[in-house]
Amino acid sequence: MGGSNESVSVDVEKIYLGGKEHLIRTGSGSVSVIVYGDPDKPALITYPDLALNYMSCFQGLFFCPEAASLLLHNFCVYHISPPGHELGAATLCPDDPVPSLDGLADQIIEILNHFRLGAVMCMGFAAGAYILTLFAMKYRERVLGLILVSPLCRSPSWSEWFYNKVMANLLYYYGMCGLVKEYLLQRYFSKEVRGSSEVPESDIVRACRKLLDERQSANVSRFLEAINGRRDITGGLKRLRCRTLIFVGEHSTFHSEAIHMMSKLDRRYSALVEVQACGSMVTEEQPHAMLIPMEYFLMGYGLYRPCKLGESPRSPLSPSCISPELLSPESMGLKLKPIKTRVALEDSDR
Known about the structure:
The structure is a single chain. This protein has helices at 13-16, 54-57, 59-63, 65-74, 101-114, 127-138, 158-174, 178-188, 191-194, 203-212, 217-228, 255-264, 282-285, 291-299, 324-327, 341-349; strands spanning 7-11, 20-26, 29-36, 43-47, 76-80, 120-125, 143-149, 243-249, 270-275. The protein has 16 helices and nine strands. It is an alpha/beta fold. Strand 6 (120-125), helix 6 and strand 7 form a beta-alpha-beta unit. The longest helix is centred in the middle third of the chain and has 17 residues, at 158-174. It starts with 6 loop residues before the first strand and ends with a helix.
């Protein structure tokens, strides 16, 4: 399409801490992409979950000094927002067709072609992980590897389908009301950080709640409709040949999805890390738990963290806290097993 090669580039350094926003016109509508880093470096693309954008989904990970040094040292990062989920987004036209998740996966190839990118590393959370997995299945030659957080791979269960329909009705009649926000926060975070009547909710939950207030309810509803109509893609997982690293929180609402997905992937190219005492959004709730598994995963591509930056004393992970099996090489250069980040923290305090 002629319009797919056009874009409007808006310099927003003051808002995005050095990033630049590009509005890319594609065959299925415009999409916002925030670009960080040197475009001559390999590309890492990210895709968030429902009602999130990169600020509310990946900021915790990229603000973690060790992870930032690993990722920004090796990659130019392209944060893709779902349609109408970017900061300051206007309400999408209700007459525009709602793109399916397949359509959103196809939209990514137009984004890569716009930036003249070849094969890319992909990182996605929940529905974003589903979209990137689907993209990797359809365009194998354009994907180097997948880093998936609490991924989806099956069609919705009856209970998920029902809850999503209830949420869609609430969004339609009441907008981003308290009930919708509570449902979304349960989707993202564990009970420990959401708090209770005796324990206040954590800073990350309060920050996410505030960012949810900025979402356009009609735009969230459109993405939710696409998520609720997704198809089962487990049949194609065995054909994936890119390396895949999956993170899932012990208390994630998508825990069984991640386990099922891992069972269908080729074990020569995949590994699973279960983060204990954590919900679905590991990137925000326990980003330090992702550091060492990602380091060893990226070593398989010849990518390393700069040596001049040592271990942060705030990090719950260090070689002494990791099971020896985690560091033993296999086909990926490592063998990942569930890691107990909460136990590691307690031990280090003694």
